[in-house]
What we know:
By secondary structure, the chain is mainly β.
Amino acid sequence: MKRLISTLAAFTMTTPFALGAAHAQDDYPVGRSGATFGIGIGGGTISCGDEGCDDFEGSGSLDLHVGGMLSPGVAILFDAWWMLHDDDRFTVDQGILTAAVRAWPISNFWLQGGLGVARAGIKYDGTFFDAESRTEWVPAFQIGIGVEPIATDTFGLDVSLRYGTGFYSDGEDRIHNASLNVGVSFY
């Protein structure tokens, strides 16, 4: 993980698209303001911390966020992140909704964290019967890091690593989302 982060950071600092060379020195981070919204897609794994629970690699990831810039380097967001694994007739998913803060400690690199709720479900579409189960909404959190190879005052293209979990039952059962996403944000 450390190697991936350092590789992404090095790529961002050397790419010719990284902020536009003249603009990078004037505004740190990019001079963003007002409302923001964005979408990201990717893939990863849904796993759980309970015995007898499988990991579901090859899970798709979709995240949406909307919010506002508090300053050019800090945004407050509502973040909705859903992961889904579909294998023939069996589907597992978990959604995490959070109030989040995204901050750019250095140009083209952001950190995000949020608290909120999660909900998971399983579904089986069988030949002779169908079964579906969905949990209640439970406390959850998510964190993420992102690198922006392209960043302007009004647009950002990012590659991000995300992790989140919901706390089910007595707090010992957990379902984990982990993904690598590519996203766009508008400011």
